Amino acid sequence: MLEDVADLLACPLCAGSLTLDGVLRCPSGHSFDVARQGYASLLRGDAHTGTADTAAMVTARAAFLDAGHYAPLAAVLTELCEGTILDAGAGTGHYLAAAMAAADRGLALDISKFAMRRAARAHPRVGAAVADLWADLPVRSGAVDVVINVFAPRNGPEYHRVLRPGGRLVVVTPRPGHLADLIGPLGLLSVDARKDSRVAGALGDAFTLSGERDLTVPLELTSAEAATLAGMTPSAHHVPADVLAARTAELGPVIEAEASFRVALYARA
Ligand SMILES: C[S@@+](CC[C@H](N)C(=O)[O-])C[C@H]1O[C@@H](n2cnc3c(N)ncnc32)[C@H](O)[C@@H]1O
Ligand SMILES: [Zn+2]
């Protein structure tokens, strides 16, 4: 619930503290709506929302993740969580909800209101807000113990600011070969092999790499599940759903693929 995390929030316009009373309000008089579904809207008016997951992508993501296909990744993330968690680019809140088995409370941020609708009810101790990860985060400095970031934009300086000294940042990226058996036949966007070096570069000196774990998850999918998986990837912005469905149908009744993740652990200096 938003109440559980309201003290972590800061005004996206002036960084003042926010108090929750039907709406969120800062001492300078800026106010922000809380949607009927329980998430806050903390976007600045000048935000670029073009990369937000659409309603259809969020529905596909919820169906795929709730079916448990990526449960091994959720388990690894949960092991790394304690205290107050910020999930930056949380999507449906799936991993954050899982992390609550080990953590006290969680704040989900994402620029997609469809994602935040889901995240707001992902777990009783999770609150959700629509926000732009490329802007100053609407979060108080030093307020969180762990930032998790799964296949989402990485704003190193801001993750550093919101983490307490000694806090940790957990970044999950696709490894080369991630879903390779689907990418070719379905015409999906392929993983950029340079991504890992870019991650380290973008985080800069503010973080020290303290551990890395590669995780491979074998998948056995029906063609409907493969279409759902494709529908939650960025390719869904480019390849229409009916085209994806037609292409997956051609792959046969059982489709074998492999998800391949890198989980990198960074210590905040
Ligand atoms: C590939 S999804 C990953 C979602 C979630 N972490 C998961 O793994 O299920 C990327 C997410 O980043 C969000 N996103 C894209 N650009 C963003 C931005 N500028 N600020 C905040 N979120 C953004 C999308 O809306 C989407 O939910
Ligand atoms: Zn303000």
CATH level 1 class label: Alpha Beta
> How much helicity do the residues have?
25-40%
Low-confidence segments, given as residue ranges, are none
CATH superfamily, by name, is Vaccinia Virus protein VP39
Q: CATH topology, which one?
A: Rossmann fold
Ions, cofactors and other ligands present here are: S-adenosylmethionine, zinc ion
Instruction: Count every beta strand, where a strand is a DSSP E run of 2 or more residues.
Output: 11
Beta-strand content: 25-35%
Rounded to the nearest angstrom, the distance between the terminal CA atoms is 31 Å
Tell me the overall shape.
globular
Which CATH-level-2 architecture? Answer: 3-Layer(aba) Sandwich
Rg from alpha-carbon coordinates: 18 Å
Could you give the order of the helices and strands? Answer: HEEEEHHEHEHEEHEHHEHHE
* Number of helical segments with 4 or more residues: 10
Please state how the strands of the largest beta sheet are arranged side by side: 4-7-6-5-8-9-11-10
Mind summarizing the main beta sheet?
A: 8 strands, mixed
Mean pLDDT: 93
Number of domains: 1
GO molecular function, one term: methyltransferase activity
Pfam families: Methyltransf_25, Zn_ribbon_RlmA
InterPro entries: Methyltransf_25, RlmA_N, rRNA_m1G-MeTrfase_A_prd, SAM-dependent_MTases_sf
Protein name: Methyltransferase domain-containing protein
